[in-house]
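job 3f2a | input accepted
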Amino acid sequence: MTKEKTRYTDSELMEFKHLISDRLEKARHKLDSFRAQLAEGLSDTRIKSLDDYSDSMEADILSDLISREEKFIHHLENALVRIDNKVYGICRATGKLIAKERLMIVPHATLSMEAKTGK
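job 3f2a | predicted structure (119 res):
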């Protein structure tokens, strides 16, 4: 009888750490780009009201993108903390390991598909 794995090995955790660190770097770069675009758009002064409306919509979209990227970065940073604490990849609902394939796609996941879908 094989014992069910209760956590990922240190080498697997390092693999996840590299993946998350890479995604974190890209997300921070993306966030900086969104912020620069927003700052640039806000510094432009336009006279036409249609342009003002368009600029306002673009600023709203960029603000939403910034908010989403900040949230994503926060989730990735939390995943790094879980790796350091060696609890990464453990479903917070079932206590079982989240499938490695899922974590490779959604490295900040805290729920297994079983817990997420209720099946």
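job 3f2a | The chain has a mean pLDDT of 89.
job 3f2a | closed
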